[in-house]
Amino acid sequence: LLGADGAPIGNISNVLISPRGRILALVIDRAATGSNRQFTVNWGDVTVRGRTLNADMAQSDTDSLPDYIAQ
Length: 71
Known about the structure:
The chain is mainly beta.
């Protein structure tokens, strides 16, 4: 997943889907960026550009997002 500035935010490790089959959020793993944390990005904050997914935020914006804990 790339940020609005084109810099990598992290790797998509999972996709959260509603019971009706709609994408709700992406689970992002920042291990590739030097951090061992996962968080979600709402699908509404993601733009698809060809084969690239961009979030409407920068990597620094993700520091304030809560950690994702699988249930």
